[in-house]
Amino acid sequence: MKIHEIDLLRSQLAESLAELSEDSAPEDGGLERATLAGLLARLVPDDPLVAQAEASLGDLVLGAIARAAEHALALVEAVDEEDDPALSWNALCAVDEACAASWLVARPALVEEAVEEATATVRAFPEPFAPHAEAASAVLRERPPRAGDPAWGLWAAVELSAVGLPLDQEGASFETRIALDLDVRLPRLVQEGLRLAAHAGGLPDEAPWICLARGEGWELAHTVDPSGRDILLLTGAGESSLRCDGEPRTWTEDPEGRICAATPGAWEIAVDGKVRRFRIEA
């Protein structure tokens, strides 16, 4: 399947490049070339067609990439639980393509905001995207986004949708729920019989990561350590205190920040005088 994909991407990219002429406007086909080359680079980073496509792009493609990301976000936000799964898959692929194009031109910031909102939508409303969890695992395992490509977080969220990310009745995201001090319920990231591609070797330099809260210069995440143990990781914060089921918990200093075992229970963290609450289920 991967060989077929490579051949198809090469064929389409070569055709797009062949259509260039001296009379071509700089923006003609630029988004298509950036997208095809970005996708091909995930599979064959040193393919000469990738470099050729990159050299053919002008600055006008940057605006096209940003607009493509906004359009893709609108598609994701329009997905309904009762829609044909093909619609949600096409929406996810549209976001992924914008990410690939942004990576090719080394401007991930062009799409980051739209991708973050699309990812938050998947986390808040996982049901329409759950049918694609296995496909998301395949993406992360077989054709992972390159380092710095914001698509990784999107596919990781889709992969996790199969195990049921927490929802409240209004479908608020983690960040919204914590900001409102709602009762956030988190799944265990590592469950019996479950091996996520992001944790099982597809992306060895990354671990499953759920941002619980962030402020100026700090972030709290639910993730796993190299041994696969669920942990809370606090980075960049000054004074903080931590409780689980009303009992104080102690941070352990780590090169990555401060860590604590993420055991089931009702948690409370105070950072800079503000309290955030969440719950981890068994």
What is the number of beta strands?
A: 10
Largest sheet: 5 strands, mixed
- Stretches with pLDDT under 50, minimum 5 residues: 164-206
Strand order of the largest sheet: 1-10-9-5-6
Tell me the strand percentage band.
15-25%
| N-to-C CA distance | 38 Å
> Shape, please?
elongated
Classify the helix fraction into a percent range. 40-55%
Total helical elements: 9
Average pLDDT metric = 79
Structural class: alpha+beta
Radius of gyration: 21 Å
Give the ordered list of helices and strands. Answer: HHHHHHHHHEEEEEEEEEE
What is the domain tally? 2
Describe the secondary structure blueprint for this structure.
Layout: H1 2-18, H2 30-43, H3 48-55, H4 60-77, H5 85-104, H6 109-124, H7 133-142, H8 151-160, H9 174-179, E1 185-186, E2 209-215, E3 218-224, E4 230-235, E5 240-244, E6 247-249, E7 252-254, E8 257-261, E9 265-271, E10 274-280
Parallel strand pairs: 1-10
Antiparallel strand pairs: 2-3, 3-4, 4-8, 5-6, 5-9, 7-8, 9-10
